[in-house]
Target: HPt (Histidine-containing phosphotransfer) domain-containing protein
Amino acid sequence: MNAAPLRILLATTDPVQAVLAARLIQRLGHPAPHRVQGWDAAIAAMPEFPADVWLVDSRLLPRDDASATTLPWIITIRAAPSDLQGIPKNRYDDVLGTPLSLEPLSAALQRRRLPGDAPPDDFSGATWSELLRLFGPTGVAELLGALRNDLPTTRARQAQAIQSHDFPGLKRIAHSLRGASLQLGAEDLARLLASAEHAALEGSTEAAELGAQALARYSALIERLDDELRRI
Model:
């Protein structure tokens, strides 16, 4: 099995498949998977559950080409080869047949490739120093507290907007996060959020994937800033 336990998201509407997959995943030494019942729900879960691998029923995969969004390693489950007809190959990385069994699942998880690039680091040392100079540790702590307290509401609003295909709502969330990201010196993250805004304005399905990826990075940035504050 993999050297370290993997965080696995399981997307299926089949209760039998869900129980079997969860048992096999745990037998391989990984935590119980986070289960959702649709592609939109998987996208919406990204900020709160940054998975290493998605195990997705082929019936839930989108039929359009994948966007430029960086998604986790996707292993799709199909009953027959014909189940993948009409699904672009860039929508999945590996395939498992049914019924699921231990050895093929273990091999598929071991074939998972890590991204070649290091994960984005949105922390700006220069901006952090300037915030401390302007507001002092107490003021910065209050700012971070307000941003942190807003996160659960933002995650819930984004998840609802993704599930209901509310593009104006996704645009508003991306716009708000872009402003906060710029204040924190996260210019690359702000550019990603600008792309999410544009996609939402165009009514593109990329808006959900870009927005969820950006919110996950924004949440990680707040955690990083909290860590920096504790070191003072």
